[in-house]
Amino acid sequence: MKKQQTTDRPLVKAPTYADVARLIVPKDTPEWLPAQLEWWAQGLGHDRMADNLRPTKAETRERLVAIREASRLLQRELNVPAIRSLLDTAKAPRITSISTFDMRDLAERATLACSSPLLMGATGETKRGRGKPKVPGVFDPKVLCAARVVELWRHFRGGEPGVGNLKAAAVAQAYWRASGGRSTGYGDPLNGWYAHFRVVRENKKTASLMGLRLMWRRDLEQTVSRGRPPWYEGTYFPPPKAKFRSSGTA
User: Fold this and answer.
1) pLDDT digits (tens, 9 = 90+) for 159-204
2) Model's pTM, two decimal places?
3) Are residues 150 and 221 in the same domain?
4) Rounded Cα gap, residues 130 and 133, in angstroms
5) HSE-up of 106 (CA within 13 Å, CB side)?
């Protein structure tokens, strides 16, 4: 049986940031919250753009091989006295800090990275699929969206949501769509957020994610004290003019 390809879902009107705010705080929704969500959405857009630029597994291996070969070439040439002397005298300061050991170490690292289970299967070939390698400390844009929702949940509800919390998943899906994210696949889109919230929980002590979450936490604290996000002039500027729709879509 031929496998059905994943396609975009039928077009539906995306939620507004006010709709997302009402999902987070259904009653007495803070007037600054839609503005905060719109301001943060710039970061979500950046996350998606950065992810689009990330190489696939096959491309990653090709680039690592190129690094290995370039390092080996530099190692050989830096060992040639005539070449090194010309490089040293070309400009100040001298290149004494660049050692052949560094080039050899870089080549070895590239070789080891090429054979990493993140890129190579049990047969010794590059793992199949067009997906991006799961690099430690580098997160999928939907994981970063879920992490923002966790911080919002923590701020307004006093604790983090469970990885299977469907209300938190509804917030994440609505925020993803409101910020311009595409919704693909089949079935209930809320079920797909379980894996992203799980990654957030499993990486609570990962430095890169910890730094982002602390920054978002400070953002919320500053917005509460000011009554609006800093440097914000968007749809909900000034924040008191935010309009809330009674019906929200995910």
Assistant:
1) 999 999 999 999 999 999 999 998 876 788 999 999 999 999 999 9
2) 0.79
3) yes
4) 9
5) 18
Residue 193: both structure tokens together: 């957020």
Regarding whether 192 and 175 lie in a shared domain, the answer is yes
Q: Label residue 137 exposed, middle or buried (CB < 10 Å: 0-12, 13-18, 19+).
A: exposed
> Is the same domain home to 50 and 174?
yes
In angstroms and rounded to an integer, the radius of gyration of the C-alpha atoms of the chain is 24
- CA dist., res. 248 & res. 29, Å (int): 14
Looking at the fold, whether 44 and 152 belong to one and the same domain comes out as: yes
Whether 79 and 50 share a structural domain: no
* Residue 132 belongs to some domain of the structure: no
Task: Check: CB of residue 98 under 8 Å from CB of residue 78.
Answer: yes
| 95 found inside a domain | yes
